[in-house]
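We modelled the chain as a single entity of 210 amino acids. Its sequence is:
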Amino acid sequence: MALELGDHIWYWGGNISRAQNIPRRDWFPDSNPGDSNDYSGHGSEIYYFVIYSDQIARGQPHMRNRPGSFSWMNNNPGNITGVPGGPDFGQYPGKFSWHNFLIFPDWSTGFDAIAKLLQGPAYASLSILDAFKKYAPASDGGNNPVQYANDVAKALNIDVNTLIGDLNGDQMVVMQNKIQDIEGAIAGDSLAWNSDEIPSEIANQLPSTS
């Protein structure tokens, strides 16, 4: 099946996978099933690609301090997650990365999606504090939602009990920028569609550009 815009691909040593997670059991059968970061010593050889109309993004978001964080790779500065049939924030329909992160066609659309989410019915009636307990719950990857909320409120110079729905347009942009900063985008590589650095296993499945 040919790749589509918005598709992501995991690549290792000639193997490709469109699964949300690296297929460790298939690729590294001797890895520890209880350690999601055990790649049997091959972590630095694994790459993540995303297909866009103007580039092929490449990075190693599964590795700490390596190029290409998920937020950058997915054009998702807020690391917004989704589910099938969920709200339309401008993302590629039906495309979900690791952790159900949405994939957006460009950075601007992903940035605007932060406001669409927070101004929507799920967040508008919440205080900044309660909103970030929902946006970045402590149960998810060691988040600190109280610190997150305090950092956002400080950037806005307002109280954490302020309702999201009471923010004006300029304040929302400040909030979006602060969320973008906190989520931390690390740039990866932007490859041309005809780049020799794209593995043939991926290049041979790219959609037609005609």
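As a brief sanity check on the tokenised model: Residues 84 and 94 are 6 Å apart (CA to CA). The first helix runs from residue 24 to 27.
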